[in-house]
Write a structure and sequence with these properties.
Layout (H helix, E strand, L loop, with lengths): L11 H22 L8 H5 L2 H7 L17 E5 L15 E5 L2 E4 L13 E5 H4 L48 E3 L5 E3 L2 H10 L6 H23 L4 H19 L5 H15 L6
Antiparallel strand pairs: 1-4, 2-3, 5-6
Helix pairs in contact: 6-7, 6-8, 7-8
Amino acid sequence: MIRVKVSEPSDAGWKAWVKKAEEGRDRLLAAARNDRNIEIEETLYKERKEQIFGWFHGKCAYCETLISANQPGDVEHFRPKGRVTDAKGRPIEMAAHRGKRLQHQGYFWLAYDWRNLLPACALCNRPNRPRVGPRFGKWDQFPVRSFRAIKPGDEAKEKPLLLHPIFDEPAKHFVLDESGIIGGRTDEGRECIRVFGLNRDPLPDERRKCVETVQNKFELYVQAVATQGEDAKTKGQRLLEQLSEYMKGTEPYSAFGRMSLASVRRQFHERFEL
């Protein structure tokens, strides 16, 4: 997981969709006030799927796997839209009302809020139960430290235990190893590893391959820089451009690519602008 910088678009198409999203939110709030069914329009929040996926260069916001035709991606709600469950899939209950324990209805008022929509692969987002190891997959989970929002505006008081890659800096919460294993430096980092299954197979192997690829390309780059001739210069520039994609965050597993670059740059005792 890496930080992804996103600025809200200002084109007419986007503004028209935001207006529809706000109207949709108002309909949901009115339904809740009048004890009617809260019916979320899937087509409305998926309408900007291509743009949301583009912000993340076609990668899962959580594990950085490239989402392709044979790896369907979801428009994932960071704060679940329909209900909230614990790690065992049990609905979160809120305070009693008229003698009954009420289940959390989910953050339905954020169902169409672009800041709550992220691209996710099926394995990070949907519930999975492997043959060996604990269950993983976010689905309706949203662990918080204590206070939980039940109405618009209250979410500002929450302290989520999951990281939002647009608003948080994941690098502060994880420890990366060249073997491809990711460790948690904080409670938030550890919860992300658990919920999204960030060390599930084959992620460690794929991230290790990324580390090796960066190391090999960097060595070839150093060799090209030390060689005379236009061919070597062209090759070096091409390798430099490829390595810079990890710093930009466009490549799968860029967090590990950046770690590998930092390591080899220290190894060669050189400073390169990437």
